[in-house]
Each structure stands twice: as structure tokens, then as C-alpha cells.
UniProtKB/TrEMBL annotation:
It comes from the Bacteria. It holds the Pfam family Cons_hypoth95. GO terms for biological process: rRNA methylation. Keywords: Methyltransferase, Transferase. It comes from Thermus thermophilus JL-18. This is N6-adenine-specific methylase. PANTHER family: METHYLTRANSFERASE (PTHR43542:SF1).
Amino acid sequence: MVRILGGKARGVALKVPASARPSPVRLRKALFDYLRLRYPRRGRFLDLFAGSGAVGLEAASEGWEAVLVEKDPEAVRLLKENVRRTGLGARVVALPVEVFLPEAKARGERFTVAFMAPPYAMDPAALFGELLASGLVEAGGLYVLQHPKDLYLPLGERRVYGENALTLVEV
């Protein structure tokens, strides 16, 4: 069972769609411990390939203004239900990431943190490249990619948590 780890909605259980691979507890805890220290005033948090919303709703629970992007219809339905269950004001966007990125850029949207956890069957490095090229993260912000630990990217800082890794790129 996936639960919110901290903040206002701590302990709330999330419904997980069949298509999702929720971020492991250890990885989420480490990420938010880091973000809590780095961004005490929070900001805007973008969760791409949101799945169950475990990461984006964790951000919202910690006081971030969260936008969760997901294209799978079942996942979108459960995301909306999870937002309602947590009582958090996260915004769910039912679009493919490759459609959302240029649209958000055209609207001039900016985020403090952009987190991406694509299905590992996709090409995480190429997708992360698209995110970096979007320029959606403001100065002083952070791009974060969750990926298999055996993928090495020639940029940013790498942190490994079991079979998963995070690559963090500062703006």
C-alpha cells in the first residue's frame, strides 16, 4: 500500500492504477528530506508521468503547489480520487507528457522542481532531455529524473536508492 509520508496528508493511503510503478518509500523520503532543506519556501512542483500521484501528492502535502501530469485514463481517474481523498489542492492534467511540455512552455509556466518518473520501458534519458530542453524550471530550481540504477547520465548529481536512482540537475 502506498501512503503519503509527511505533511498535511501524512498517512493517507493512495489508490494505485495497474499502469503505475510507485516510487519506493526510501526514494520519496530521501527526495523530500532534501527538498525540504533546499526549498524552505516551497514553490511549484511538476510531477510528470504521475501514476498514483505518490510523488506529486507528497509535494502538495509538504506545501508545494503541485501539478500532476498523466495520460492513462484509469490513472487520471484514480489521481483525481487521490487528490480528493487527501484534501490537497493539486492540479491533475490529463495529457501525454510530450503534449504538456510544449503547451506549458507556450503558456509561460514555470516550476521550482520538475520531477519525471517515466515508465522504464520508455527511454528515460531521451524524455529527460525533452524536459531539460523545455526550460520549465526557474533559475535556482531543479530537474529530477527517477530511473533504473544501471542508467548513467553525463550530467547532474546521481543518487542511488536500491534498484532506482535519481539524477538531479540544477538550473
